[in-house]
Amino acid sequence: MKRKTVDIITLGCSKNLVDSEKLMAQFLEAGYDCTHDAPNPKGEIVVINTCGFIADAKEESVNTVLEFAEAKEEGRIEKLFVMGCLSERYLKELEEEIPQVDKFYGKFDWVDLLKDLGKKVEASDIRCLTTPRHYAYVKIAEGCNRFCSYCAIPLITGRFISRPMEEILNEVRELVAQGVKEFQVIAQELTFYGIDIYGTPKIAELIEQMAEIKGVKWIRLHYAYPAEFPMDLLRVMREKPNVCKYLDIALQHISDSILDRMHRHVTKAETYALLDTIRKEVPGIHLRTTLMVGYPGETEADFEKLKDFVRKARFERMGAFAYSEEDGTFAALHHPDDVPAEVKQQRLDELMALQAEISAELNAKKVGKTLKVIIDRIEGDYYVGRSEFDSPEVDPEILIPKASRRLRKGSFYQVLITDSSDYELYGNVVEK
Description:
Blueprint: E1 5-10, H1 14-29, E2 33-36, E3 45-50, H2 55-73, E4 79-84, H3 85-89, H4 91-97, E5 103-104, H5 113-116, E6 135-139, E7 141-142, H6 153-157, E8 161-162, H7 165-177, E9 182-186, H8 195-198, H9 203-211, E10 218-224, H10 232-239, E11 243-249, H11 256-261, H12 268-281, E12 286-293, H13 300-313, E13 317-322, H14 330-334, H15 341-364, E14 370-379, E15 382-386, E16 397-401, E17 412-420, E18 424-429
Parallel strand pairs: 1-2, 1-3, 3-4, 4-5, 6-9, 9-10, 10-11, 11-12, 12-13, 16-18
Antiparallel strand pairs: 7-8, 14-15, 14-17, 15-16, 17-18
């Protein structure tokens, strides 16, 4: 009998990706053939894992659902299911507006999907990796207790819930056994990890124990919060050679008035002091941050402070986005969206142009240095790899000419950097 095929489409962040990987494992156990983000999905069943974080992400999710709702009407697919953040937040509205969807699931009840299809599959943490087999994402918690004024995540995911430490460590051991070498540790806010279970922050202990597992070559951390930062984590990053000198810490702004309106619980002075401490305690660390422009009440003076911050901090990695009002947040209820869209875009463009200059200067300083690089894929005439300072999907990559020698995906090489651009490096493998 022909096996039914399922296409799973993941939108949004790597935390959603982990959920999709768990769902794929359940479908495979139930006897389905399963693909993920296929270029032309043709399965009898399509599952869309949606994002509901900001306006652009919600629009992409809705448009994707509508596209496959049309495919179902035309008989090109049999069943359509939707899960994730968007349907967690707007379940009733979506059910009314898009009746072609067989069922909407939220952020957590998607584990019932196979049961609703009449399949007996036990919920578990087993995953079918969609990433290259040498790296994986490890989600250590769900939810967030920070309640920043602009952010809908606590409204979608609820309060912060840590996974037990031994459960996480067992998952890492299982992934190592499958050939995974590099681990991206993720949470909405990983610096809060452990407080709800153990009464005190445990992120440093978790990472230290993870680093001691044989076969773990790289550990990289996403996403830290600046207030009440667990300083003992810096010792672990400094002392453990397989903990990458890399930290993703979303700072959002630097103006005290904007930080206060955002409910960030940190000041300009505290932010500068924290960055100084991190860089002193972990020499050579590369910091990634995210900044926001156009928050309600942001003046030209506030924006000038933000630009000055970027110039002084010289982040190795930086992203930015324009504020969008999110239903139900404190900002939407109390801070009118008074910065015109064209001003937001102008400020965003200006900030990213400034960062491009900084990135080009920092990259140029790597020319002549030798970096440890893992190879992800082949693209055109190049092998594409990353150093410990580069997270998959979001950071610069290192391009190595294919003609230089044969390289293996998932293997590490010493690479001499020979050239640079704003966001890429070029190099050649150093012969042993």
